[in-house]
Amino acid sequence: MYEPVTKEARGTWNWLHCERVEVIEGKPRRVLKTKQGSMGNVLEELINDAERPVQGVSFVKHIVTARWQHRQYSNLKEHLPENWAMMVMDFGQNRKVFYQDDIKAAYYGQMQITMHPFVMYYRQNGTLVRDSMVADQRYHAVEHYLNIASQHLASNMQQVDKEVLWSDGCQSQNKGKGTFADLSLSSDARERNYFGSEHGKGEGDGEIGVVNRAVDQAILGHKVVINSAKDMWGWCCANLASDSMYSKRSFVYVAKDEISRERPETEVTTLKGSRGYHQIQVAAPYKLKVRRVSCFCFPCLLNNNEMCTNATYTGGKLEIKQLSLKAIRNVHARNRKGE
Ligand SMILES: [Zn+2]
């Protein structure tokens, strides 16, 4: 948030403070400002920053929630029940196509490939399996990739009783109204959990790092020319995929026409207060069960949330929330026309 920089004179301090200021075109931006004052001023500002809510959550509450969520994630991973799967979804990352030879670059131009990493955990013969999957595409389509990952689990596990998803709370990719509609329409075996905002990075980043390093070396060493997401997928399958018993890595290529962009069934109105929910389960289509923080204590694992041993913190029972479909009339109209 801020850090004292230099002590210029006895009793006077300079420090940097992140502040919201108005800039050109009226768009508010956060900038670092140098400030000067006594140690008393520094402390006063620190206490104010820590306790004042930003978007409804104070810094202290934000840190406590992030730590709690991370602890629940680690506990569940360590004691993952048989037939349960955990899936960590990270941001899709773009990779620019580049060539060893300039002439090819001039001919093909610049193109981007989106890599979407999933890291999955499940037990096989009592041992935890780490199974990663990277989807290569030119577009972002989180829900589509999620369904591919889910099919992957179904074909690798004997039985999938529960799919526990973990991601950060980025509204555009993982916590938007469309995501909630998709979740409610999936199955009650699936639930979503959110790391504290911006605290979910790690697992998927590592996978992307491995892929990027290997592909860069191959291109620079003239071992491969990659012009498209499909080229990259082919090379990764041949060189980086692994199917050992407890550590697996696979790649999928998602063709553009596989992704359906017209999905009126997911156009729902905003779920109020969703920023504050970190565990979301399915009750029925367009009906979700939400809780302020996640819990995987013994009663919660058995879906007996009323008996949650952390109820003073979690609130115990999950609250029911109804999603309202915006476009229901349009869907009916289209169906009548037979489009
Ligand atoms: Zn619990």
Describe this structure in words.
This protein is α+β, with helices and mostly antiparallel strands. The chain has two domains: 2-52, no CATH class; 65-328, no CATH class. It has helices at 39-51, 59-78, 102-108, 142-156, 177-185, 203-220, 229-239, 298-301, 311-314, 328-337; strands spanning 2-9, 12-22, 28-37, 84-89, 93-96, 112-124, 127-137, 162-167, 190-194, 242-243, 247-253, 279-284, 287-291, 319-322. Strands 4, 5, 6, 7, 8, 9, 10, 11, 12, 13 and 14 form an eleven-stranded mixed beta sheet that branches. It has a three-stranded antiparallel beta sheet with strand order 1-2-3. Strand 10 and strand 11 form a beta hairpin. The chain is globular, with a radius of gyration of 24 Å. The mean pLDDT is 84.
